[in-house]
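User: Could you check the structure of this?
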Amino acid sequence: MLQNLYLVYIKYDIKGALGGACFLFTGVKKMEISELETLISDIACKGRKASLVLQNISSQSVDNALLKMADYLQSNKSALQEENKKDLEAGKKKGLSPAMLDRLTLSDKTLGSMINGLREVAALKSPAGTFYDERVRPNGLNISKMRVPIGVIGIIYESRPNVTVDAAAICLKSRNAVILRGGSEAFHSNSALCALFSKCLEEAGLPSSALQFIPTTDRAAVELLLTKDGQIDLIIPRGGESLIRMVAEKSRIPVIKHYNGICHVYVSANADMKKAADIAVNAKVQRPGVCNAMETLILDIGLDLQKRKSIIDVLIDRGVTLYGDKESCKLSDKVIIADEKAWGEEYLDLRLNVKSVNGIDEAVAHINTYGSRHTDSIISENRAEQEKFITEVDSASVMINASTRFADGGEYGMGCEIGISTDKLHSRGPMGIDDLTTYKWVVRGDGQVRE
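Assistant: Sure, the predicted structure tokens are below.
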């Protein structure tokens, strides 16, 4: 229920020139539900107005804003990390998992990736305003489609302040206004990042309301946002399954989502075992707390027993806890017997399922039964097997002899991503600037009338 709620909101301002930002805590204000409704309505209306203005903004102005933000991130790295420390300290007190804390951390590497992503997005050609699918009818009408922004995008996300910058960059590059609602665990980090971006928008001559941050940690704001179908065109949730299900169930606005990332690596009987071991370790160990990390390793029993044991031993040596079927448990006494529920688990840590199959048909059937249509990989040197895997596995990304960790907008050449979709409408897989456009029909005539 939304009655009688009181909300706390914090505002950050940027003081000082480029090279020295100062984030000033300006106080706490209690808001009654009527005030919150007014706030969300105002944000949604401003977003709609900004989205219309953005359609006439030059590409150079947008690119300037993105490049300024990249410079601001670099010169204000220390100040941003100080704000991030507040979130990390609060997260540790709340008992956030290591995976959640990892996602929350604005490390030098994370900030470097954000900076590179901004510059890569700025260098991309915006699809907005481009024409395609042109045809001339017998009556002389010239008919084509023109790429146009979706309009106003609402992003609801947890624990990942890098999403603040990635989402803003992709939305602005594709001429969409964006409304950001980050999780409470990243409130200080997100507030500081949005303050920087707002400054960049103003300096580049863009409407500051093209990017707005909801300044409250209360979940009631999310429910109100989801009712603004007259102003907001699309909602993209990023976070845990419970958040995404709540958004999908309550939203009046179309939602693009993925509930979880149950990713598989299938090691065929025709695999190069050096590749298989390296990929399995990378897919699970390199960063286990993300949605494109492997959750089930599938081993073909056509592989020599010692070859299968070698992969298992490497994973155990790297600190991975393994759960397997009866056949997989024969590979090591450290493999714990798995129950039926395990095959649908997204662990997001150093736990992994091991499934034994007899041939590619069983592997594909297991993936299509228990997977989440996110990302799945085959390790095989057999071309026919590779093509069968590509054709029959029903996932947003299918890979041959590569780690599932590559399922990422930056790795796909998009600069960064706004999310990964396991839906089939209107976008699938890592989403970049092209995925935040739709089209309008343009009909050019010379006085034609219909008979």
